[in-house]
């Protein structure tokens, strides 16, 4: 198969994927979430209300996703129980919800190693330079330790998840 043929097959498959993704419009979430669960190994995030799943999203993680974040620059997404404590409507990656990493234990662990624990871990949409990728952004882990979703998904999460919501990030 020559390169031109491969290119056109890739375009056709991509267009089919976009069509399928766009045709699966889900009904609006009418409740506020009271918990967010992230399953790093499955690249999935769930919004829950009274232990009932309201919505599940495919996500991208930090570029080095295995293990718990231990220091600034390790490109890991933290693991554990945190709070979504504030939001940024003018984030460089569309909108963002802040994860309360580092907690006291994270700081202590980093101090023992003589490193900075890092911070500014967010759930966020796509940076303008890659917003064209849409749902395909989940094909690789591209964040610096954050949890990436599409801009449309971020709009829904923004409306559904109030400040103060618990987020549990599991391996």
UniProtKB/TrEMBL annotation:
Residues 34-170 form the L,D-TPase catalytic domain. Keywords: Cell shape, Cell wall biogenesis/degradation, Peptidoglycan synthesis, Transferase. It comes from the Bacteria. The active site is at 124 (proton donor/acceptor), 146 (nucleophile). InterPro entries: LD_TPept_cat_dom, Transpep_catalytic_dom. Belongs to the YkuD family. This is L,D-transpeptidase family protein. It comes from Xanthocytophaga flava.
């Amino acid at each position: 198969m020559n390169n031109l043929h491969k290119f056109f097959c890739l375009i056709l498959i991509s267009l089919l994927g976009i069509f399928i993704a766009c045709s699966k419009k889900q009904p609006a979430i009418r409740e506020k979430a009271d918990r967010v669960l992230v399953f790093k190994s499955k690249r999935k995030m769930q919004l829950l209300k009274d232990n009932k799943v309201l919505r599940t999203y495919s996500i991208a993680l930090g570029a080095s996703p295995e293990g718990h974040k231990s220091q600034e620059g390790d490109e890991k997404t933290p693991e554990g129980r945190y709070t979504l404590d504030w939001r940024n409507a003018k984030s460089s990656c569309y909108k963002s919800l802040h994860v309360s990493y580092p907690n006291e234990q994270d700081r202590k662990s980093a101090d023992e190693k003589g490193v900075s624990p890092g911070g500014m871990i967010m759930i966020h949409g796509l940076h303008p330079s890659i917003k064209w990728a849409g749902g395909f952004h989940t094909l690789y882990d591209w964040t610096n330790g954050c949890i990436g979703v599409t801009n449309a998904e971020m709009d829904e999460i923004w409306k559904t998840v109030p400040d103060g919501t618990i987020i549990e990030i599991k391996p």
